[in-house]
Design goal:
- By secondary structure, the chain is of the alpha/beta class.
- It has 11 helices and 6 strands.
- The protein has one domain: Rossmann fold (3-Layer(aba) Sandwich).
- Helix content is 49%, strand content 13%.
- α3 links the parallel β3 and β4.
- α1 packs across α11.
- The longest helix is centred in the middle third of the chain and has 15 residues.
- It is globular.
């Protein structure tokens, strides 16, 4: 029996982040969109994902979703049949990044979610391309639909997250490591590190894409995920 695929989106994103991939893969297996909006720490988020998940599943996460995915497989490796980590980071947050979280949270509490997302965060996510404006608008729609309380919880969870490099060394299931070539937030060398940590993993670099290749180069990401699921 084909295992379901559980997808975990990035910060201030929802299932629309994986829209093209979910539509294609749903013809072959069940696709489930996990919720990582309900807590301010990675341990609780991982537990909530596991509580809502099938007994066994393939797991793919992008950015913050990949960070939660690493905590999920750390806690319940026997339930994860294969792992895909997209545009993400196994390390704890750097002090200089942590220092930016507080002012951003305060600005959002004061009503500045739209500004913080549009000016400080989202423009850094995407490679320049013909669909840049369209994808940025979708990113803003996802963020504004989730709202300021989710922004605060997710910011704290990211700020306080643990290092997961030892977790990756213990992974034994088929693993895909994927990122956009122009990802400025989680650059290629971070994915080369993860590829080195997970024995037997496959590394895919998507050209002409930044931090959200699922939307920027959807066909390339769908092909990589399809190959990973068939491996």
């Amino acid at each position: 029996m084909t295992e379901p695929l559980l997808l975990l989106p990035g910060m201030m994103c929802d299932g629309r982040l994986f829209g093209p991939q979910a539509e294609a893969i749903a013809a072959e297996r069940d696709v489930i969109h996990g919720d990582i909006t309900g807590a301010a720490d990675m341990g609780t988020l991982a537990r909530q994902v596991l509580d809502a998940a099938p007994e066994r599943f393939a797991l793919a996460g992008l950015s913050m979703g990949g960070i939660v995915a690493m905590e999920v497989i750390r806690r319940a490796p026997e339930r994860v049949t294969r792992l895909a980590l997209l545009d993400t980071n196994p390390r704890a947050e750097l002090p200089e990044v942590q220092a930016r979280r507080g002012p951003q949270i305060e600005a959002v509490r004061a009503g500045g979610l739209d500004r913080i997302m549009r000016e400080d965060l989202k423009p850094n996510y995407l490679a320049k391309g013909p669909r840049y404006g369209e994808i940025l608008d979708l990113c803003m729609a996802m963020a504004l639909s989730l709202g300021p309380h989710v922004f605060e919880r997710q910011s704290i969870a990211l700020r306080d997250r643990p290092d997961q490099r030892e977790t990756l060394r213990a992974v034994t299931v088929p693993t895909l490591i994927l990122c956009g070539r122009q990802d400025a937030l989680c650059p290629v060398e971070r994915h080369e590190l993860m590829h080195d940590l997970v024995a037997g993993s496959r590394l895919v670099i998507v050209e002409e894409a930044g931090h959200m290749p699922t939307l920027e180069r959807p066909d390339a990401v769908t092909a990589a995920l399809t190959d990973w699921l068939a491996a």
